[in-house]
Design a protein that fits this description.
7 helices, 9% strand, 155 residues
Length: 155
């Protein structure tokens, strides 16, 4: 999020890259993630449109919890199910925000890293980077499928 490279900043969870997921608008992936820390629906709506440090700081007031609720399901924090929610948010972001999508695709096949001052127990940096790379692979595969369909239509 602090990179001098604008394209890299667009990949960051802090970036103001609005998207919709399950009928709700979010200002950033960070807003989605921090909102999960709250059970109160009004608080989640309040956080949803934030981005950057403001979104990150919004999570500071959350009461400690071993679980979160999403779409009527209880999810244990720091588990593969919890990380899957992050993957859904990232997929929504990168499929709905064209500049962020192009920034992610521009990384080619390079390994990505998620650097933080202190690694998270909720979503370790290696897990976050893996999510970005899986989303990137999905976008490339989707793009290749679209190109194949275009070729079939044109032939």
């Amino acid at each position: 999020s602090r990179s001098a490279d604008e394209w890299i900043r667009l990949i960051s969870n802090f970036a103001h890259t609005p998207f919709e997921l399950d009928g709700r608008r979010y200002g950033s992936v960070e807003a989605f993630w921090q909102g999960l820390k709250f059970q109160d629906e009004a608080k989640r709506r309040e956080i949803a449109l934030l981005h950057g440090d403001e979104a990150r700081r919004a999570g500071f007031d959350a009461p400690p919890s071993e679980t979160t609720e999403y779409n009527g399901k209880t999810v244990r924090v720091g588990t593969a199910d919890h990380w899957r929610l992050m993957a859904f948010a990232c997929w929504a972001k990168f499929t709905q925000h064209e500049a962020a999508k192009q920034a992610l695709l521009a990384t080619g096949e390079r390994p990505l890293m998620h650097k933080t001052r202190k690694d998270s127990r909720n979503i370790p940096g290696v897990v976050m980077a893996d999510i970005w790379m899986k989303v990137r692979r999905g976008l490339v595969n989707r793009q290749e499928m679209d190109e194949e369909e275009d070729e079939e239509l044109l032939s």
